[in-house]
Each structure stands twice: as structure tokens, then as C-alpha cells.
Amino acid sequence: MPLSANNPDRKSWLHVDKNSDFPIQNIPFGVFLTRDDIITIGTRIGDTAIDLGALHQLGYFEGIPLTDDIFLQDTLNDFIADGRKTWRLVRNRIAEIFDADNTSLKDNVKNKEVVLFRLDEIEMQLPVQIGDYTDFYSSIEHATNVGTMFRDPDNALLPNWLHIPVGYHGRSSSIIPSGIPVHRPQGQTLPAGATEPVFGPSKLVDFELEMAFITTDANDLGEPIPVNEAEEYIFGLVLFNDWSARDIQKWEYIPLGPFLAKNFASSISPWIVTLDALQPFKADNPKPLKKQLPYLQQSAKKNYDINLEVAIQPEKAKETVVTRSNFKHMYWSMSQQLAHHTINGCPVNSGDMMGSGTISGPTPDSYGSMLELSWRGEKPVKMQDGTERKFINDNDTVIMRGYCEKDGTRIGFGEVKTKLLPVFEPKKTK
Amino acid sequence: MPLSANNPDRKSWLHVDKNSDFPIQNIPFGVFLTRDDIITIGTRIGDTAIDLGALHQLGYFEGIPLTDDIFLQDTLNDFIADGRKTWRLVRNRIAEIFDADNTSLKDNVKNKEVVLFRLDEIEMQLPVQIGDYTDFYSSIEHATNVGTMFRDPDNALLPNWLHIPVGYHGRSSSIIPSGIPVHRPQGQTLPAGATEPVFGPSKLVDFELEMAFITTDANDLGEPIPVNEAEEYIFGLVLFNDWSARDIQKWEYIPLGPFLAKNFASSISPWIVTLDALQPFKADNPKPLKKQLPYLQQSAKKNYDINLEVAIQPEKAKETVVTRSNFKHMYWSMSQQLAHHTINGCPVNSGDMMGSGTISGPTPDSYGSMLELSWRGEKPVKMQDGTERKFINDNDTVIMRGYCEKDGTRIGFGEVKTKLLPVFEPKKTK
Fold it and tell me: Residues in domain Fumarylacetoacetase-like C-terminal (chains A, B) (predicted)?
């Protein structure tokens, strides 16, 4: 099916700023609460949010096989389960409806009133009910930095790292959309030199710059997904801040992996940018440093060129961009992650989310966490307001942004913006 | 509220075998497909399955605040979210309806026809949509055995083990009810002495004898659950077989924990036995071997005395019971697990599932996995049919059973029974 929605020459009759992440070539999907307190599925062009439930009720998706209530839901799971053919028909139709030459909605004031919203009239929700969330560890720069700091600089990568897209299961219930604040977690840590742990607030709260992809129903129990078919099952991507408490992690993670150090919160950008919209931004795969087993051997260009940055904004001060990285640096691709995840027959469903792991670039100003940027606190990061950061302070806001750009077309993710609040204080009851 | 459903003197007008796991004092909850291909929520007394959706429509729950469709659902999540007070009202009412002295349903042939089913007329389903699944590692005997085999017999427990109810996230999508077969997983393993991994079927497929508890909506993001309130949020328990591929695990698990070695399948018994029904079988907590941090210090009797056994049934042969253990051996209780899981503010929701970890007893005939029973293959386990097992063979069926017994009342879980099939062969397409 032709991806006419990706046509770089198309203009919309809706206003789109020159540097917007959301031109008519993007057409992401999200879920929002409207000014009338109704939850609906929507998309966005420029700074206008579009109610797809209303568009559908008004007949604008006629001819596309959709159930009546497919967009009148509080998650995208059912729409995603409808599969790639349906996603494409809908994205192409949206592109047509908002094409500068199409007057069917443009000139219908009454319809526009129920379909279009200013961004300040809506409240973005979590776009999917996440059945399972998996986090990978697929940046070779990140794995090398961590291995260098905590193990052996000469053998920074563990023996399995170049053979396996290492991953582990995370917690779905604490994945939250941009804008929801997070409390500094409490927990057990082992002070330097001590033999008994102490209890208290984490002193080393960190972000991890990641992207996450969202899948559709992919396979039955027992059935692997071939690496070169894997993209068929990827609906789209979001920015992902995998909040981490380094001191809790250090004490708890042997032998079964990170747990409370990670599951207090992960924050995502609310608009899912489709893999279809990202097709013009494919990038070469990195050359494997060791021969990969056949089930992981992929055809060309499974990476994506997505510019990423993280800023820290202290309370009542301007933000400072602390790192700039790129999703193209991933050693293991999303296709390899999905092939590996299912090689044992593990079922993948609509709404599952898979994080990339921290995306560090090759240079010290492109590392994807404060742990690496401050080199575990040895090199504090200077802020515009004159303060320094080794990790994240109470009341700091962490902002991640990402976009692709090529030949004058920019497709972006918006941002994921999260304030770190002090430790949770239980409400006093009389 | 009095737990009249637990009255040990009550008899039912439904037939109950002397050794049944499901006397009228049990009243578990499950989801089944009826002879009319309808999915409903039900309970079980003796060998009779009871359609709670039909009972509700016929007015038998009058006076209890329940939505009309609460039992006409394909999962128990909404009912569980209604909270403990509602569960108790419903269990008490079911006990009254089926009390030997109550004729309201007993003498109504027409109503009985739509409410009661023989077990061979129904097909048990997964009872909940599992939002998140966590697995703990809370048996000191199991942790000691594993540490002795793979690390250092003199320091078998890792430094954090006596301070933390160690846990990690697992995969919800591959949790299946009793009766669904599992394929032997394929994956990467590192042969002894090799430096490069090979790909193929796991040679060391194992069961893990566990129990799992199911929670209700417990807390908001940021809010910990106090250890001595934790049981308020536990709906009930099931038997849990945490299938494991030991060779895949060994190669993949450092540093982020088990992944493909576990997520190919976990099997559960389909009837959730409520924590209320288990109250007569409370057991003392084990004495802590190290002082526990205040948030883990619990009042008395948070353990439960539940007899457990595992049998292996080779194809076309009789089963052999290979181990007998007990849930009371757990070093860390469910209350401590839940308090630890939420001390950082991680939200726990209705339908979440938490596994105990392998439940090994103190003697070699009470270990909870073949890894321990055969001491990593050094001591093969003899079967009734003359064969031996180090791990699980293709076409073996693994059966777990569990029950409590005291003063003539027996409350049981039935069984979780799963056949291990050979490696999955993709269907040939023309």
C-alpha cells in the first residue's frame, strides 16, 4: 500500500510552524481528554489536536473497515490490533482530509468545532494499556561506559553482550505520560564500607534517555518472529525516560536484575509516532563486531536516524541541555530485539512496550544518563543558572526531545517532561 | 465482617467427596467457558461448577452492591477491584445458597439447570488479565541450594538476601492456565568450555514449584503499602509453575536477570482460592536471621500452611511424585513482598500476580525444582516406570497440587497440569 501520508510535498490547511514536530507528514496517534471531559483517540497537526472519534462519527473514514467505537476508547490497543493495513488506510485518509486542497472539513465550520482542539484544551493520557513492558540494553556505548565504571575497563562488555540483545522485564503499572510528576523513591542502600543496608531516600536519582516501541498482536505462544518480519509488528515509537535510582540498584540487582531502582516510574511522550512515518529516516545497521547467530542476522537499514536531547530545568530557572544523542547509535535494532524476545515462543501483544535501553552516543557530550555524563559524580555537569548536577535534584524537571529531519521534512516526538518531587509524605489522618 | 463462609460445620446440598479440595468452605473464583460457549465467572463446590453470572441474573445476590455485569466478564479484574468487603459478602452469600438447609436453589430445577455445570462441560480460562507479574526468590532453602551449587557453599546466600525480599519482573503474556501445553524453548546457550554460544533447544527444562498471589487495586504512584496492611490487598492464591530453561538462563542472566529462560511460559491453577478461605491455616513467621528494616517488620502469623507436591507423568505411564514441600517454609511472607514492592511507590493494581519463587523445604525430598532434586543432574530422580529424570523430557506432564488441612476441613487448589511438547515447528506454507 502506498504511504501517501508520507508525501513530503503535501501542505495542510491547518497552520504548522516551520520547526513543528507535527507537520501533516507525521500524523501520530494519542489519547486525550477533551474540554468536554470525554476521552478520545486523536492525532495532531501543528498545534491542533484532532478528535478521530468525532471525525469517524461524522463519516470521514467511510470505506475503511473500522468498528463504530474504534476511536471512542481510552486506549489505542484495539486500533493497533487492527493491523498495519488499517493504520495505513487511516493515516492516508487523515492526510487527505487535512490536505490544503481538500475543503470537505476545512469549509465546514460546524464539523470543525467538534473535531479540532487547541492543545491547551486537552489533556494527554497514556496512549495504550501496556500489557508487558520490556527494557533492552542495546547501546554499546552505554554498556561499555557502565562496564568501565563498575567492572573492568579492559573487559567492559560482558561475554554475552555481543551475542544477545540483552533485555529484562520491567513494570507496566508505573509507566506514566509526560507531565505527571514523580516522587524521589525511598529504599535500601548499602553505604560505602558498610555491611548492613540503611533505609532512606535515594541520593542518586537519574534519567535514562531511551526510545520505546509499541507492538501489535504478533505471535502465538511458542511461535518465534523472524528478524526480517519484525517491523511488521511495530506500530510506532515514543520517547522514554527510564527513571533510575542508582544507589538502590547497586544493592538490589545481584542476581536477578534491577527492580525497585527502576519500577517507581518511567515517563513517555504521549504521541506515538508511527514506524510508517519514520520510513524516510532509516539508517544503516552498525557492523556486527562478532558474528551473530542466524536468527539475529538482519537485512540492511533497520536503524533510524532520530536526534535526541535531554534538558534539565531547575525550579524557577532556565533549562540546560545536558546531552545530545541519536537513536541511530543502537548496536541492536528493534527488529533484533523482537526476534530475540520471541525466539523462545514468548507471545507479544497489542500495546506491549519495549524500551531501547539508554541511548549513549560515542562522545562524552552524547551520553544518555547522568551516571555517564558526570562519570558517577566525578565530573559535575554545569547548569546555565550556575549550579551543578551530578544526578537529579528535587524539583528539577527533566525534558527529553526527539526529531528526524531530512530534505526539509521534520518528524518529531514532542517531548517527555517530568518533574522530580521530594519523597512522598503520607497524608496525615486525624 | 464475619467470615461465615468459613464455618467448618456447614455442609452443602451439592455432593462433595471426602477428599475434595473444594468443600463449601473453599468457594474459590475462576472464569470458564460453558457448554453454551459463553464465558462467565464462577465458583466450584465439589465437582460442580457454578455460574455466578447466571446466579446474579436470577437475583440470588440481591442486596449486595454489584453491577449487573460484574460476573458476565472474561476476567475477575473488576470484581477483584470491588474490594474485600464485596468479596466477603459474595462468598458468604454463596455459602448460604448452597447450605444443606437452604432450598431456594436446591429445589428449583429450572434455575439449577442454568447455574450448575459438570466439570467436563466447562473449560477453565485464565482467571485474571494480569497487568504486571512479579516473581520473588523468597525461600531460603532454594536460595541456599542455588548459591551452594553455583557459587560458594560457605557463602551461599548473597549479601542482600537476608535484607531484601529479592524479586524481579516477569512476563504476563505467557502465563497460561492448567491444561495448555508448552513447547520446549529454543535459544542461545554456552556449551561447557566454549567461548561462543550455540543455538538450539534447551536441554535443561525445569519446573519451579511456586504459589502466586493476586492483588486488588492497592496504592497510587508514590505511595507505599505498610507491611501489616498488605493482606488487605491480596485477593487470593493459585499454584504456579514457573517453567525455566536452566542452560538459557546461565548464559543470559548476567547482569539484568532471567529473561528468555523464564518468559516462554508459566502455568497456573485456574481456581483462585481466596486469602479469606485460607485464614484457618495461618502459620508462624520464620525467625529473622538478621534484623529487618522497620518497613519489613511484620506482626505474627503471616505465613500459610499449605501442603504442596509435584508429580511427573511420562507419556503413557503413571505419574511419580518427585517432591513434597510446604508454603509455610517461605522466609519472606507475601506481606513483606508487597511492602517491599511498594516502598518506592510502585503502583499495584487489580489482577497483578506475584510469585513466591521456588518453594523448597529443608530436606532433599522437599526441594522445589529438578535443578535441586537432581542436584544439577548429578543425582537422577527415579520414576515409577523405571526411567530416570535429571530435568523434564519432551512429552512429560508436570502436575502440581496443593491443599491445607486442619480439624477435618480441607481447602485445596486443585492442580496445575502442563505437558511439555517438543520444540515448535512452524507450519509449512505452500
Answer: 134-402
